[in-house]
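Consider the following assembly input.
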Amino acid sequence: MWTLIVRFLHQMASPQYFYRIAGRLVPWFMVPCALLMLAGLYGGLILAPPDYQQGESYRIIFIHVPSAWMSLFVYVVMAAAGVIGLVWRIKLAEVVAISSAPIGASFTFLALVTGSLWGKPMWGAWWVWDARLTSELILLFLYLGVISLYSAIEDKRVAARAVAILALVGVVNIPIIHYSVEWWNTLHQGATIAKFDKPSMHTSMLIPLLLMALAFKLFYAGVVLMRARCEVLERERNSRWVQSLVEPQTR
Amino acid sequence: MKEFFAMGGYAFYVWMSYGIALVVLIANLVSPLMQRRKLLADIARRQRRQRRAESRTGSRTP
């Protein structure tokens, strides 16, 4: 069993092998993602009853909370992959780290925008400088910093190292975002699900929310593989296997 | 049905959220697809150019 795992890891370290396997894996993430998302939307928009306080507006939660969770999750994956690349010099980890950044940035953007669209009717303001909102905005800037730092450095291996350090420093923001609703008096409501008590949410709302969260996770897995394939292709563009990939079929 | 789209008066906020989410998800899918296509086309173009240069100077025999 152990030798099998070691062999698998060795093969995955080969860019050519990764390129092929990742391409084959993508639909295995995307198809379940689409099904879960449809189920989640049906449950969230049609089956779930309106909220007793917020009426129908609370339905933004089925987008807002999964994307906010993903904004944190992707960051942790990115920083962890960055550190693995930094310490063990594994190229694939660098590729995963840098491929995660734009996806994480888009989830953070989505969390902020949907939060704003929810805040306006509920709080009466598009934006407040509340601890939760501010720390999430900083997260967006961290992602954008990672993306621009990577593109600013010519040598991709040096760039990956610089990015890993930036991502690692930014990890302090993650617990700040999570606990901001407890540490400070925020306008943003407290945790509903990620707490030690029972989730304070009815199952008819909780199930679609969890379905959407799972769908978003699968979406990230699929897209990060797609992006990683491009990154591998770019880095390996002069190698023989990439050259034979674009070879005209007539040879 | 009309009631469903009205979202109890919150139609703008709710549908705007879902609309933007859809745009973000699609952009995430399209971006790597386009990037891959462009990259492969670029690599193929360079390869052709190199082959042509090689055959002209005869620097390498096949």
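Chain A touches chain B at residues 45-46, 50, 55-57, 59-60, 63-64, 67, 102-103, 106-107, 109-110, 113-114, 117-118, 120-121, 219, 223, 226-227, 229-230, 233-234, 237, 242-243, 245-247 (CB under 8 Å). Ask yourself how this observation constrains the way the partners meet.
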